[in-house]
Every structure is written in structure tokens, then in C-alpha cells.
Amino acid sequence: MAQAKENGPDGDLINNRNWCKGCGICIAFCPREALFMDEYGKVVKEQEKCTACGICETFCPDFAIVLVKRRLSINAGNKTGPDARQ
């Protein structure tokens, strides 16, 4: 499995395991200590601790981590509200 997608409270963390060199920089910068190395030397996220802050993505030198933020819509599904798109 090349990519691992893990859902967080505010976004989805996509970890491309083929690009990860196991340098540990993302682990060192994670403020919640939610990242760790697996038995293959690849980064894994601990779901309960991750807040999807994006710091790991910022410091990953290999672009192996991508955080896709979720949008908050006040009137989701309501086509008549102020956020309605035509």
C-alpha cells in the first residue's frame, strides 16, 4: 500500500509512504506527539492525538505528507441560504 489516508477532526492526512524517507522531522515538530515510526521506518499517525494542524506537512522535506482541510459550511445542503452557489 503506497498511500495511507487517515481522517482527522479537521481534515484528512494523506501519507505517501513511497516518498517518506523516515527522517523523523515531522515527528519532531508535531505538537501533539501524534506521529511515530512503524516497523518499516515510515511515519504513521495516531488518530486520537492528531488535530490536523498541518505542521507535519509544512516541515516534511519530501512532500510525503499532505493535509486536505475540510470546509465548514453553515448552510450545507440548503440552496436558498447566503452560502448557496449557483
How would you explain this protein's 3D organization?
With 86 residues, the protein is α+β, with helices and mostly antiparallel strands. It has a single domain, classed as Alpha-Beta Plaits, CATH 3.30.70. Helices cover 12% and strands 26% of the residues. The chain has two helices and five strands. The strands form two sheets. Strands 1-2-5 form a three-stranded antiparallel beta sheet, with no helix packed on it. The longest helix is centred in the N-terminal third of the chain and has 5 residues, at 25-29. The mean pLDDT is 80.
CATH fold assignment: Alpha-Beta Plaits
- From the helix content, strand content and strand pairing, which structural class follows? alpha+beta
How many structural domains in the coordinates? 1
Strand tally, please?
5
CATH A-level architecture: 2-Layer Sandwich
Largest sheet: 3 strands, antiparallel
Summarize the structure.
The chain is an alpha+beta fold. The protein has helices at residues 25-29, 55-59, and strands spanning 3-7, 11-16, 35-37, 43-45, 65-69. It has one domain: Alpha-Beta Plaits, CATH 3.30.70.
